[in-house]
């Protein structure tokens, strides 16, 4: 890293179960002198009803991302080469977008993302709980996934096929980073 240069901030976006955390973790391990921020480690104030939020235009600035912003601002003062953010909003949140240098959308088919999410989130759940979640997804939740495909995906710098092996996705992203760094 050159003296006085701020770290390159890379945001990894995808739908829930799309691979954000996995890809962010492996990318962080591959990059030299980097740190990572995970969206799911924060408790954000946001819309109470996601479907209502989508119906009203999905204004990403309605999310109070102050805790993440605070941590990001601290990391930006450290002598790092990279900051990797597991961050589903890409450039759509105005307060965070000014800090992000590069966004990646992991384009994972919705059926694969859903299977991953259910496997991850319902390991110890009853069949009834899983079925209730599936019914919620069909009746309304899928709209949240589609919102991301319609707004976050085209708002990203690159789109990577989420069905590729993790090492290949990380390699593709690394190649792009080398080009812009």
How would you summarize what this structure contains?
Helices cover 46% and strands 14% of the residues. The protein has helices spanning 20-30, 50-55, 66-76, 94-97, 110-121, 127-151, 166-180, and strands at residues 8-13, 34-38, 82-86, 102-107, 158-161.
The low-confidence runs, each spanning 5 or more residues with pLDDT under 50, are none
Strand content: 5-15%
- The largest sheet has its strands arranged as 2-3-1-4-5
* Cα radius of gyration in angstroms: 17 Å
Distance between the termini: 10 Å
Q: Helix-strand pattern, N to C? A: EHEHHEHEHHEH
Shape: globular
Note the main sheet: 5 strands, parallel
Going by helix content, strand content and strand pairing, the class is alpha/beta
- Helix count equals 7
Q: How many E-type strands?
A: 5
Q: Average pLDDT, to the nearest integer?
A: 93
Q: Level of helix content?
A: 40-55%
Structure characteristics:
181 residues; 5-stranded parallel beta sheet; 7 helices; 14% strand; globular
Written account of the structure:
- With 181 residues, the protein is α/β, with parallel strands linked by helices.
- The chain is built from seven helices and five strands, in the order E-H-E-H-H-E-H-E-H-H-E-H.
- The chain has helices at 20-30, 50-55, 66-76, 94-97, 110-121, 127-151, 166-180, and strands at 8-13, 34-38, 82-86, 102-107, 158-161.
- The chain has a five-stranded parallel sheet with strand order 2-3-1-4-5, with helices on both faces.
- Helix 1 packs across helix 7.
- The longest helix has 25 residues, at 127-151.
- The chain starts with 7 loop residues before the first strand and ends with a helix.
- 29% of the residues are buried.
- The mean pLDDT is 93.
């Amino acid at each position: 890293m050159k003296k006085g240069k701020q770290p390159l901030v890379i945001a990894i976006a995808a739908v829930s179960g799309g691979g954000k955390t996995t890809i962010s973790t492996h990318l962080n391990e591959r990059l030299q002198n980097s740190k990572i921020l995970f969206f799911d480690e924060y408790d954000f104030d946001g819309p109470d009803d996601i479907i209502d939020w989508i119906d009203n235009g999905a204004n990403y600035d309605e999310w109070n991302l102050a805790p993440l912003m605070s941590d990001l601002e601290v990391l930006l003062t450290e002598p790092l080469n990279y900051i990797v953010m597991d961050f589903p909003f890409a450039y759509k949140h105005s307060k965070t977008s000014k800090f992000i240098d590069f966004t990646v959308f992991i384009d994972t088919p919705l059926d694969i993302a859903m299977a991953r999410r259910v496997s991850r989130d319902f390991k110890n759940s009853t069949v009834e709980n899983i079925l209730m979640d599936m019914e919620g997804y069909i009746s309304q939740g899928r709209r949240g996934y589609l919102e991301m495909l319609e707004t976050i995906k085209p708002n990203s710098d690159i789109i990577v096929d989420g069905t590729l092996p993790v090492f290949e996705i990380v390699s593709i992203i690394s190649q792009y980073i080398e080009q812009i760094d």
